[in-house]
Amino acid sequence: MSGSPVRFRDVTKTFGSTVALKAFNLDIAAGEFVMLLGASGSGKSTALSILAGFSDATFGDVYIDGKLMHGVPSEMRNVGVVFQSFALFPHMTVAETVACPLRMRRRPADEISRKVGGIGTGAPGLAGETQA
Ligand SMILES: Nc1ncnc2c1ncn2[C@@H]1O[C@H](COP(=O)(O)OP(=O)(O)O)[C@@H](O)[C@H]1O
Ligand SMILES: [Mg+2]
Question: Is the pLDDT at 4 greater than 90, yes or no?
Fold first, then answer.
């Protein structure tokens, strides 16, 4: 079905009379680093939101690892999203926020510690730091 880990096929999204995304096609290869550049309102967030499963396409298909995502809930897609703002839970430190999804997946404590610690490498200590 798909050789690309991420594939948009003719994805259209409308909000009433607003066409937020029109027949959008994109294939992202394994390991490829992709940026969506475009004017405000051009549909970037809409495309990412459909990929993550936060909203459904009006028309078209999204595939992840060759699997059609129709009806697949966000938590089953293994897609991470970092929002432009309000990215931290207000009651958690930065480290706790990063660790949260790993804890929810019941990953072992040493793995969580390693992954959270790795993010801070080369930067001021992450552990214990709070949001600004
Ligand atoms: N929930 C929504 N309800 C109505 N219109 C929306 C909604 N989300 C986005 N839009 C509209 O869809 C278009 C694309 O928006 P968006 O995907 O946020 O663009 P971008 O992220 O590129 O700035 C804009 O015209 C925006 O106003
Ligand atoms: Mg946006």
Answer: no
pLDDT tens digit sequence for 103-130 = 988 999 999 999 898 765 544 444 444 4
CB of 54 sitting under 6 A from ligand 1: no
Residue with tokens 């959008």: 24
Ligand nearest to the CA of 20: 1
Task: Judge residue 57's burial from the number of C-beta atoms within 10 Å of its C-beta, 0-12 exposed, 13-18 middle, 19 or more buried.
Answer: buried
In the structure encoding, which two tokens stand for residue 63, read together? Answer: 């595939």
| Ligand with an atom nearest the CA of residue 84 | 2
CATH 3.20.20.70 is right for the domain spanning 6-76: no
Ramachandran angles phi, psi of 3, nearest 5°: -90, -5
User: Which segments of the chain belong to CATH 3.40.50.300?
Assistant: 6-76
pLDDT at 97: 86
Q: Residue of the nearest CA to atom 3 in ligand 1?
A: 15
Interval 22-31 mean pLDDT: 96
- Residue nearest (by alpha carbon) to ligand 1 atom 2: 15
